[in-house]
Specification:
Blueprint: H1 3-10, E1 19-24, E2 32-38, E3 46-51, H2 59-78, E4 92-93, E5 102-103, E6 109-114, H3 128-144, H4 163-176, H5 186-199, H6 201-207, E7 214-216, E8 225-227, E9 233-236, E10 243-245, H7 247-258, H8 276-290, H9 296-323, H10 335-352, H11 354-370
Antiparallel strand pairs: 1-2, 2-3, 3-6, 4-6, 5-6, 7-10, 8-9
Bound molecules: adenosine-5'-diphosphate, 2-acetamido-2-deoxy-1-O-phosphono-alpha-D-glucopyranose and magnesium ion.
Residues 28-30, 55, 219, 221, 238, 240-241, 264, 313 line the site of 2-acetamido-2-deoxy-1-O-phosphono-alpha-D-glucopyranose.
Length: 371
């Protein structure tokens, strides 16, 4: 699609001002994101997204979920008389027909958010303060959704963090081996097999009724919590995967992208190290906001989440690699394999430091509960 065609799509939304400069934006792996400048400097800029509807096949339900969550958060903010509700709520801009999305004549689906000015999202964390604030942001978000009726949320991607399901998908890819890549990934497949049982711990605890199902975000990468210009938690974004889940998933996915000193897809495995100060700061932020309500089993599950989330991402990247790269957007021919290797290296590092991780979580939780 040309730039002008995309700008025409932006004009299908109830935006203020005049569509100006358009630029590809962010580093997401699923949708196409554009930053839309307003030609009128007094009016807001926008984020325009082409929704990946081969992954999110039910756009209507997806957008209903997002609107439901936004309304819930907005209501809490409006009813807050004591100033205890912090930060901003994401804002959807309706299409001209009032819908939360627009379907173009070519069948593609689009949506628009108000661009949150002065905010920053980080692929790589820079300091402890950012980690603590990111933790607070996600912690507050989950707490704020605690009283949202789960029946109002449609399960857009069933089994999203179901470890057994992802292991089954890997087995299917291995059996099919459609692009003859299996012979190059024996070591990675072996890595998965050795850990498969352990990594289903959270699911088993959940199935046994040992963990409460909450409404969780399920994609708590560090770049999905926007910080303000003072690096304070400002707004949780990327609400596509909000579904019932376990708190360890959100904690673990955020830890995956904060504790790691390197990028998610770092090629040089030596560079993948743990920053324990960042981990401690993130945990204090997150558990400080949620800890009072966490059950003992949930506290136990958090450290398992730290192992499971990089592992499940590695399994998904590896499956997609074997499958011929159909799911994630890639930027080089073996990108998914490189991503999988980086995630598995992170798992190794986390395993080596597991006792320390557990101790930090336990101490932080005890402190949060005693407050
Ligand atoms: P993806 O699912 O592809 O990751 P996101 O919704 O997370 O898509 O958007 C991609 C990036 O765009 C984010 O990481 C963030 O940097 C930026 N972004 C998204 N929404 C906003 C917003 N409302 N205001 C400012 N930046 C945003
Ligand atoms: C995808 O869209 P993005 O980049 O925020 C994926 C997440 C993975 C992540 C890995 C719907 O998220 O589950 O954690 O890539 N989202 C979906 O970086 O599959
Ligand atoms: Mg994102």
């Amino acid at each position: 699609m040309t730039e002008n065609e995309i700008k025409k799509i932006a004009e299908q939304f109830a935006i203020e001002g005049t569509v100006g400069e358009l630029k590809a934006y962010g580093s997401g792996h699923i949708h196409e994101t554009y930053r839309l400048k307003n030609a009128d400097a007094q009016k807001p800029d926008y984020i325009l997204q082409k929704i990946n509807n081969s992954i999110f096949t039910n756009v209507e339900e997806l957008m209903n979920n997002i609107q439901t969550v936004i309304n819930h958060l907005q209501e809490q903010k409006q009813n807050d008389t004591t100033g205890s509700v912090k930060g901003e709520v994401l804002q959807l801009v309706p299409a001209l027909d009032g819908k939360t999305y627009y379907q173009h004549t070519d069948g593609s689906f689009w949506r628009v958010y108000v661009f949150l000015e002065g905010t920053r999202s980080y692929d790589l964390i820079e300091n402890d303060k950012q980690a603590r604030e990111g933790g607070k942001g996600y912690g507050r978000f989950i707490s704020a959704l605690a009283d949202l009726d789960p029946n109002k949320i449609f399960e857009v991607l069933p089994d999203f963090h179901n470890m057994q399901h992802r292991l089954n998908q890997l087995d299917t890819a291995i059996t099919k081996d459609p692009v003859d890549r299996l012979k190059t990934v024996a070591e990675e497949v072996n890595f998965v097999k050795e850990r498969a049982e352990r990594m289903t711990t959270i699911k088993r605890m959940g199935d046994a009724g040992e963990l409460p199902l909450r409404i969780t975000h399920n994609d708590t990468k560090f770049n999905n919590v926007l910080l303000n210009e003072n690096d304070e938690a400002h707004c949780v974004i990327d609400l596509d995967t909000i579904m019932p889940g376990y708190i360890a998933y959100d904690f673990g996915d955020a830890v995956r992208t904060t504790i790691n000193t390197a990028d998610e897809d770092e090629k040089d495995l030596e560079k993948i190290q743990l920053n324990m100060n960042v981990f401690k700061a993130f945990s204090e932020g997150f558990i400080g906001e949620t800890g009072a309500t966490l059950t003992d089993n949930e506290v136990k599950s958090l450290s398992e989440g730290c192992l499971m989330l990089p592992f499940i991402m590695g399994v998904r990247f590896l499956s997609d690699y074997i499958d011929g790269d159909n799911y994630y957007r890639i930027h080089s021919p073996h990108h998914n394999l490189q991503r999988a290797r980086a995630q598995f290296q992170l798992v190794r590092k986390l395993e080596e430091n597991f006792e320390e991780i557990k101790n930090i979580i336990e101490q932080t939780s005890a402190k949060a509960k005693s407050k």
